[in-house]
Amino acid sequence: MSHNVSVTDDPQWIAFFKWALPQLRMRWAGFRKVRGQVQKRVYKRLQSLELADPGAYRDYLRQHPGEWRILDTLCRITISRFYRDQGLYTLLAGQLLPDLAELAKRDKHAPLRIWSAGCGSGEEPYSVSILWTLQLRQRYPDTELIILATDTDRNQLTRARKACYPFSSLKDLPPVWRDAAFAESAGDYCLQTTFMQPVLFVEHDARTPPPATSLYLILCRNLVYTYYELDLQQEITALLHAALRPGGVLVLGSHETLPAGITGFTPLSDKRWIYKKNSPRPR
Ligand SMILES: C[S@@+](CC[C@H](N)C(=O)[O-])C[C@H]1O[C@@H](n2cnc3c(N)ncnc32)[C@H](O)[C@@H]1O
User: Is the CB of 256 within 6 Å of ligand 1?
Assistant: First the structure.
């Protein structure tokens, strides 16, 4: 194949993504900066199909509608790390989780149910588990933490269940937490089982109805509100709203916001990417 993959501004590739992404209900704007990862995967796919260039792949997609499903899986951005957006974890420890734990207590000591949607290879749900275990669990001895962690990528889930990471995934984690939660093993850092115990990993596509209801906290970060088109964001937001308990909290990525016109949520005044589900008005 003569066509080379240079993950840059090759107009053929840009034209391809601008054509293909909307058909998957995804936004070019979300992928623009990170498209290298996707472009490499699509290039490999082209090679395996012995297609010369993105234009040929476009024709192939037109002739083989089943290929769209494969392209969809190639378009997943999988970048994550522990303690991503430090400010969020500070807020979770100081305000959000204590408030939600109080709510759960008032709900007859219900378990504190959290959903991490698009959980990567476990960095996000395990960060919450570490935070809870090391900083809050003692204050709420009667509150059980349950974190449902879902992703549509099986490889990510396999890595998550293994819970061993390179140092680069842990570099934002406070060193005391890192030392308390991980043991070094053959160059990797493996999470101790006590921090894995509250987290349940399940395969699930964020574009389908949520896997649980009456949730206290949903983390839906760096997925829906970056990569999906506005209509799909609105549809998913309605599903997330229904899955939260009133007073429950929805956290987006720190560069994301809910689409304009969404009702039923109130943003935390200084954090436009963290929302509380409104309680029904008393009649
Ligand atoms: C950019 S990572 C974000 C991980 C984590 N939430 C964070 O903010 O660090 C996006 C994750 O969503 C997963 N993903 C992509 N499409 C998905 C979908 N439709 N449903 C569920 N997970 C999806 C990817 O496999 C990946 O693990």
Answer: no
CA of 121 to the centre of ligand 1 (A): 9
**Ligand 1 pocket check: which of 152, 203, 229, 252 to mutate, most ligand atoms within 8 Å of Cβ?**
152
Q: Could you give the CA distance from residue 103 to residue 115 in angstroms, rounded to a whole number? A: 16
160 and 32 part of one domain? no
Nearest Cα residue to atom 25 of ligand 1: 153
Per-residue pLDDT tens over the stretch 160-208: 999 999 999 999 999 999 999 999 988 899 999 999 999 999 999 999 9
Kindly report, residue by residue over 65-114, the tens digit of the pLDDT. Answer: 999 999 999 999 999 999 999 999 999 999 999 999 999 999 999 999 99
Whether residue 130 is found in the same domain as residue 269 = yes
Q: Which of 44, 49, 75, 47 is nearest to 61 (CA)?
A: 49
**DSSP codes joined into one string, 84-126:** -SHHHHHHIIIIIHHHHHHHHHHTTS--EEEEEES-TTTHHHH
pTM of the model: 0.95
CATH of the domain at 217: 3.40.50.150
Mutate which of 34, 69, 79, 153 for ligand 1 pocket (most atoms within 8 A of beta carbon): 153
Domain count, the chain: 2
Residue 170 lies in a domain: yes
Q: Tell how far the Cα of 76 is from the centroid of ligand 1, in angstroms.
A: 7
The Cα 270–Cα 268 span in angstroms is 6
Last residue of some domain: 49, 74, 99? 74
